Structure formats: structure tokens, C-alpha cells
Amino acid sequence: MMKSIVDTFNNRFDHWEITLPEEDMKNRSSGHIQNAGWLIQYCFGKDENGEYLDYYAAHRMTDDEHVRIYKDGQVEDLPALSSIRLVSEDPEEDKKLDNEYYLENQKVAKMLAEKGFDKFTINMFLHAGLDRKNE
User: Fold this and answer.
1) How far is CA 129 from its chain centroid?
2) C-alpha pair distances (Å), 29 with each of 21, 36, 104
3) CA–CA separation, 92 and 95 (whole Å)
4) How far is residue 26's CA from residue 21's CA, in Å, rounded to a whole number?
5) What pTM value is reported for the model?
6) What is the maximum span of the chain, computed from C-alpha positions, in angstroms?
7) Side-chain half-sphere exposure of 54, counting CA atoms within 13 A
8) Residues whose CB is less than 8 angstroms from the CB of residue 85 and which lie 6 or more positions away in sequence, other chains included
9) pLDDT tens across 12-69, in order?
């Protein structure tokens, strides 16, 4: 029944020999995998399109990815923390771009926390501006 979810997830991380724990799959339990430089958090849910697995994968050598896999194998990209911030030589424009970057990433961080994805790598922490004092 959930074979497409498992296959899609396992194929994505096959290179690192990372697989979704069978027990979590069977019980639809949330969890995380920390292996081969990856921090992957996942949870199960259901919406109008059916059952799904959401996962958030972070690795210091690549951009983060936030993905929903439905039981029919359909994959949907979800918002992830951005590691790229636009800059401007104009100080006012640059401050605006900086604020927009952190506001968007903080919105994503809040969404992740609401899913129970509460483990953050240092890069995730910095991209969300969680090290910054409120101005």
C-alpha cells in the first residue's frame, strides 16, 4: 500500500544507503535519520489527495529539500530554507533584501517546527536568522 512512498524515498537516498525505517513506515511514526552527513526528518499525514510522507533533508554540501511523497508515488516540492540571499550595492535595498530573506526563511522554519521537525543543523539555524537579535 505504501510501497511507492518507501521506494521513492529510498531511491532518493540510495547513494548513501539511507532507507526509511520499516517500523516507522508500518506504524506511520514520525522520526529522523542522521547518517552520511544528512539530517532527514519525516512525518506522515493525509490530505485530500490521500496519505503521504513529508520529509525535510539537510546536508552541508547541498541545498535543503522539503518534499511530500504521496502513496501513488507523486512527489511535491514544499518550501525549504533558502541558502541564497540576493544582495544590492544600495544600502537601503540591501537591508530590504536581507529582511525579506530572513522573514521568508523564518516562515519556513516555523512551518517545519509545526510539523515537529525541530532538529536544526547549524546552517539551517543561520539561514533562518535564529542567531540574530530582533531589531
Assistant:
1) 16
2) 10, 22, 29
3) 5
4) 9
5) 0.89
6) 55
7) 18
8) 97, 98, 101
9) 999 999 999 999 999 999 999 999 999 999 999 999 999 999 999 999 889 999 999 9
Place of cell 516555523: 110
Angle, alpha carbons 20-39-9 (nearest 5°): 30
pLDDT tens per residue, range 68-102: 999 999 999 999 999 899 999 999 999 999 999 99
Q: Cell digits for 45?
A: 499525514
Query: What span, in angstroms and rounded, lies between the C-alpha atoms of 72 and 20?
Result: 17
Computed over its alpha carbons, how large is the radius of gyration of the chain?
Answer: 17
**Distance between CA atoms of 104 and 107, rounded to whole angstroms?**
5
